[in-house]
Each structure stands twice: as structure tokens, then as C-alpha cells.
Amino acid sequence: LGVHGMESRRCCKITRTECADGSVPKYVKRYYRPRGSDTCVPYHYPRCSQNEEMDEQPIQYEQNCQDLCFKGPEKRISPLFTLIDN
């Protein structure tokens, strides 16, 4: 069992203010599941290098986060739009 009692450490938010080589990370949109939350949320992942990102494997899409961080009945995607019946 991973961090926070979930299947994968990938479900956790990765934070850092400096890369291993001393440079400043480039922030890109990734997803994680906050502890106790019933949804995945976007955050600014501090990307340092392709190798580091491949090692950490932050979650790029909300659907992937749902698949990785929730068991079947827990899965819920925030609707991008709502259908209205007339």
C-alpha cells in the first residue's frame, strides 16, 4: 500500500522549489488526490527534467487520476458541462 493508504504514490502531490541541479522547476498542470478527498484536483507540478518526471510519474489527466487513485464505486469525474433536458 502506498502513501496515504492508496494504491499509488502517484496519487500524492509532488512539491519542490528547486531541482537537483539547483535550477528552478518549470510548473506544469498535473492531478493528484488530496487526502480524504472524493475527487482528483489539478496542481502545478514542479517539473525539473524528463528523467525525473518519468521516475515520479505525476498524473497528467483527471481520468488517469480517477483510475489510479479510486476504487470502482468511488470514481467520480467533475462534469465539464451539464446536459439540460427541455
Automatic annotation (TrEMBL):
<protein>
    <recommendedName>
        <fullName>BPTI/Kunitz inhibitor domain-containing protein</fullName>
    </recommendedName>
</protein>
